[in-house]
Task: structure prediction
Amino acid sequence: MNAAEHLPALQVVLPLAAAPLAVLIRHRLTAFLLVLAAIWSAFAISVLLWLQVGDSGPISYAIGNWPPPWGIEYRVDALTALVLMLVSGVAAVVLPYSRASIEHEIASDLHYLFYAMFALCVAGLLGIAITGDAFNLFVFLEISSLSSYVLIALGRDRRALVASYQYLLMGTIGASFIVIGVGLLYLETGTLNMMGMAIRLQGLTGDRAVLAALAFLTVGISLKLALFPLHQWLPNAYAYAPSAVSAFLAATATKVSVYALLRFYFSIFGETAIFQRLPMADFMLLLALAGMFLASTVAIFQQDLKRLFAYSSVAQIGYIVLGISFDSVTGVTATLVHMVNHAVTKGAIFLLLGGVMLSLGGITLTRVQGMGRSMPLTSFGIVLCGLSLIGVPGTAGFVSKWYLILAALEHGQYWLVGAILSSSLLAVVYVWRFVEVAYFRAPLPGDEVRREAPLSMLIPAGLLVVATIWFGFDTSLTVGIASDAAQELVRSGR
Amino acid sequence: MRGDMVLRVIVKLLIPFILLFALYVQFHGDFGPGGGFQAGTIFAAALALYTMIFGLENMRRIVPDRLVEAMIAAGVLLFLGVGIAGLLLGGNFLDYFVLDRDPVAGQHRGIFWVELGVAITVFGVMLKLFCLFAARNLGQE
Result:
């Protein structure tokens, strides 16, 4: 066996196998080390796959040696490689953090189950990105969703159960819509292979079943994506989940749904069907703008920091979808760059908030006042990431907004530049609320002696903060891969 | 209900046949309707029936909770193991053609073990769900 040929399968199989092994072992340290080994290897594999794609173009892997139109195909192109690296990279950073973090949040006899669920969730998200089969995508979506419901429900607060249940209901509706959409497409095209579907759909213009499939898929994926107004599950799920889970899901779950949306729109239905015959662009533009303004406004009035940044996530998803609505290489590049930059930034913020939760025992704005003095590193990290959310030059957020504005100008929609800038002002307000409370108020009595979170939590969070700044200066990695992927997508649909 | 002689005897008579039918569904899955998922459910149904008549404690003595949890994981591992065996024998992941010299026999062999894995996991999951609901009622009363 030549390992290099089988990397696409191993990418998913390693984390997937780590989960049942962790359950069988039942010992938390061994389970942790096992899952860590699997996830770090998955990250290494994703980097190797990206290099392979760069050298020799898209990779196709036939599961079970059944060739593509009949069997399940794993397909790696630039877009897939980007999402794989994002998911496994964030997982590789969050998992070491989680060990110290869940010590205080989850009963110790459940730790091995936490690691198993984490591995399953990673396997599911990687599977969504790598598969070239529409039904297989749904199966992996269910794997990642079911495990994330469990992960959210593990939160210490009892409200975590309600949040998880709410997400379960919304997520199940979303998944059912997706499977109905895939079913209708199968009915029309007779294949589940994405490439095969794309070819056969070209001849089926104006078919009602195809339109219905598009509608079901759009609503289903938008639910998982938390596109405004289908975002109701997100704030509670992020707010009450264990800190490590909030960080991981905020950084990856919605981003992988963005991937699924791009895949269905550009690779399967094709641009002409989506953007020329149907008013999808106007529709997405409207929802994106509503999300950007309304969710940012709601974020301003939150008392709980995790909820504040969760609403900010809904707003950022608005920017991501805005990029898609331009239907241009620059627009999709902006979407993908913002997907990565926002994942890194939000991941860092939620990791840092986990440390705050641990040291201060709460993360309401009144509880964290004066934390600039007792936890200087953490506060500074949150401020840096906040600057990235606003889009200040020198941070990752600036780069993605820059590309969004370029795409808007290219499209001739000058008023959108104003909209992007003024919604950034709303971000200034909610980030400022944290700054004011953390730096300009005296610490609560007894807080002067509080210390920073342990190093095992600070280092992973610090890594993501550094990445937030790094991607603000060196864009060759993020923008490079994103524009390759965007060219592939936008060209393939023409 | 536990004291009812008729129920106890009938259930004792029925359970072997239910288990046998589960095995039939399991192994006939290659040729007709059936397979691991259905067989696992029928297995779990036999134990659910047993629990209703003889109580949760007795059932737990036959199938301890740890075993149920181990089965849930072991079935998935068996499935993945077949996939990895394909890799090690020089094929792709989940490649059954290489499991035997004769590719058709290889397909049979692959399906057999995969279905067994499915049956074990489904049996474990169904039983676990049933136990959780049954134990919850005991706790409240």
Summary: Chain A has a mean pLDDT of 90. The interface with chain B takes residues 1, 6, 9-10, 13, 16-17, 19-21, 23-24, 61-65, 116 of chain A (CB under 8 Å). Residues 329-360 of chain A form the longest helix (32 residues).
